[in-house]
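User: Hi! I'm working on a homework problem where we have to compare a predicted structure to a textbook description. Could you give me the structure for the chain below?
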Amino acid sequence: MKDTTVTVLMPVYNGAEFLRETIDSILSQTYEVFEFLIINDGSTDDSEEIILSYDDPRIVYLKNESNIGIIDTLNRGLDHSRSKYIIRMDADDLALPHRIAVQVAYMEDNPDVVLSGSGKINFVNGNSTQDMVIKPIVGEQLLYFNSIFNTSIPHPSAIFRNDIVQKYHLRYDHHFYGAEDKALWLDLAAYGKINNVPEPLIRYRNHANQISYTKLEEGRTSSVAKTFETLNKLGFSLEENQIKALSLLCYPHNCDDIHMLESAQRLADKLTDKFREIGMCDAAYVEDFFTKRIKRIIVWSSPVGISLFRFIYKNKRFKLREFGYVFYKKALLRAKK
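Assistant: Happy to help. Predicted structure tokens:
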């Protein structure tokens, strides 16, 4: 039976190792009527043989003649689909049996929501004792605020409205390779609300060859670029010379330059004031968000040495006693070198 409510969109590139398990998790859903669009992106392993071994009318199989990459493959899927909803799936993850039913019901009950994700269970292949339930950010304002800075809707947990995608010609963007999901989520958010279903609906497999690991640094650079673009669309008037400081706030890490740390602090203060002015998110939450991020940068930045003492002492967000003996010992040792 032809159905126009749901398309499950799944690209595959050399995914044979986990592919059968993933396909089975979709075909065994309690919500039974959907299109399962599998696009083989020029695989050279047994992926095609596995896909063609299924005799299920819900599977629609497309094959790229060569490996064109995940962004163009996903966009081919968007071009093909005419369903009301698109559900994303990756070829190495698992959908819990009620995933589609829960997500379709949520979207039907919330017509102003254009995009939704869910919680997830992170797992290491073959080791169920390491299962970890990851609770998502819930609440439209909180989720949108967090999504500006980091990807807060797991890509393989997403469901979104296809009419919005088609009406406004939204697609995955090569300019944000590695963060193409975050970029599309923020584009969708311009046309409605976004939210997460609290319960975990996917099992997210952690392994060394998954794309999210192999393109980590490039993805972070793209993510910060989309953050920069989004903040300026919202009227924050950031300049190119603030991108490094913005990157520190998006992905806190060690900093060996006190001037860069001071730049990140000034930017955090500016963002906090502007978010308070526009009233997008709870002011106390925003203040706490940036305070925690600056604190993480400080804790990892003992190589800065003695100047960290002055930075903390003059900083209205912190007290010297917050950081402890070990931190100050490391900073002092660095100062003596």
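For your comparison, note the following. The two ends are 73 Å apart (CA to CA). The chain has 14 helices and nine strands. Good luck with the assignment!
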